Amino acid sequence: MINKIEENGIMPDNVNKKNKSSALFWYAVCFTGIFSLWAVINPDSLTNTLWGWVYKYHDNFSWFTIAMPTFILLSCGALAFSKYGKIKLGKANEAPEFSTFSWMAMLFTAGIGVGLVNFGVAEPLIHYLYSPQGLPGGFDKVEAAKNALSLTMFNWGLPAWSIYTISGLVIGYFTYHRGAKFLPGTPIEEGFKDKKWGKPVGKVANIVAAGAASLTMAASIGLGVFQVKNGIKAVTGMDFTGVGSSIIILLVMFAIYTIAAVSPVQKGMKILGDINVYIAVAILAYVFLIGRTDFFMGTIFSTFKATFTSIVPISFENYAYLDKGWFKDWPNTTLIWWISWTPFLGIFIARISKGRTIREIVLASILVPTAFLIIWFSVFGGYGLFDAIVGNGEIVDYIQNNPDDVYLSFIMVLQQLPMFPVMGTLFIILILVFLSTSATSAVISLSMITSDGVENAPPVRTIIWSVITTMVAFANVVTGTLNGVKAVAVVIGIPYMFFLFLSMSGMVRQMRKDVREGRV
């Protein structure tokens, strides 16, 4: 019967879709598997080779990387306040699927993840200690501290969220306004239909995106395992080490994010996002009120001003006449790391932003998270800096003596305050839920990508990607190859910058065409 249908040229769409999704699934699995096996079999080779490639890129194109997010931020602003800003992702009368609070909670927790805890205290101190704008640059301690928070917010604030926002807009416009598929390559394929290279480049983008999503998320899960171990040890005094403890933590996280991922987004992801925000705000409010509130308020105001006034100076500072070790390891590598998150975050942001206008998405998803992060880093990073300047310097000494394991610094802040058993327990829960939220968004996006871009992917495909991502994370935790997997994510992020700019161009081309033809 099937042969007869094929002879008549009437192949059902579901057969074609199944073949396409199966092919993309296996391409993505092979892509992920190659780098994962390399990491396990010969981790030194993987780490040295890929970081070598990354630093060669930095040597020649660090000027482009540091300026890139500011260009994207300006592009987002231009879209929001132009005639295109009123375009809604969806039908003209379509209401948003989620409340503004839940939408923002999902955006924020999926986009930041466990890094908010990993680097909330550590990153400002690292810039304070090692950046040309810190102590090595001859600045006094107070100015070095202010500059450190300014540099931190450049890495985590407006630039980072403009990258995430544009990645969601380019996919959301084509899927909800043009009826296209939820695929990273869709803006390239659809936006450049008139070009012979549009379709093949879009397909390559899909494969690279799936691999990037899986490996990037596996690295984040692996880092989170160590954070949970640190938290349990600090709270209970138990030496929670060994493979067995890693398996227990991974199984708990696997259960949380798999259940959330196969549940409707309105339930699973929404609930995790809301819980994350409640716990994060509770810990933040506690430290703010119990700690040096007057100092924190001054730091918040100072950091707020610097966040908006230092973007251009930082974007055009390449430290041409100085040693670039810090510059390569932090601003450049961090910004590319954000790019490596865009393949799955773009799809996820598009998926939850239905019914909202481009202007609303740009303003809310860039300004609101940035405002929260200003407070977060001013309080936690500010606490660490205050301790370094007028305190006993315990936290900054730890970071100097443990440059490859700075993650304990967040717990050290909580240990210096009352009620540590309670706040430490909340900290462990926050890590687990933060990781689970990011992992949920990743496996949802992966299942959508490898199911030919359907809005609601089959639960089986979601479970498969959840298992694959967890297995990669486990293999790298056990073998200690997380640095190699991080290198894979950064390497993938470099060419993905090219795909992102093509996607932006494709969206603008399509918007102009739609306006000319009266479709918007």
Automatic annotation (TrEMBL):
Q: Where in the cell is it found?
A: Cell membrane
Q: Give the family, as the similarity comment puts it.
A: Belongs to the BCCT transporter (TC 2.A.15) family.
Q: Which UniProt keywords apply?
A: Cell membrane, Membrane, Transmembrane, Transmembrane helix, Transport
Q: Mind listing the GO molecular function terms for this protein?
A: transmembrane transporter activity
Matches recorded under Pfam families: BCCT
Q: Which organism is it from?
A: Peptoclostridium acidaminophilum DSM 3953
Fetch the InterPro entries from UniProt: BCCT_transptr (IPR000060)
What is the name listed in the Swiss-Prot or TrEMBL entry for this protein?
Glycine betaine transporter OpuD
Q: Which domain of life is it from?
A: Bacteria
Query: What membrane topology is annotated for this entry?
Result: Multi-pass membrane protein
- The transmembrane residues are 21-41, 61-81, 101-122, 156-176, 204-228, 240-259, 271-291, 335-352, 361-386, 426-450, 462-482, 488-508
- A cellular component term (GO) from this record? plasma membrane
Gene behind this protein: opuD
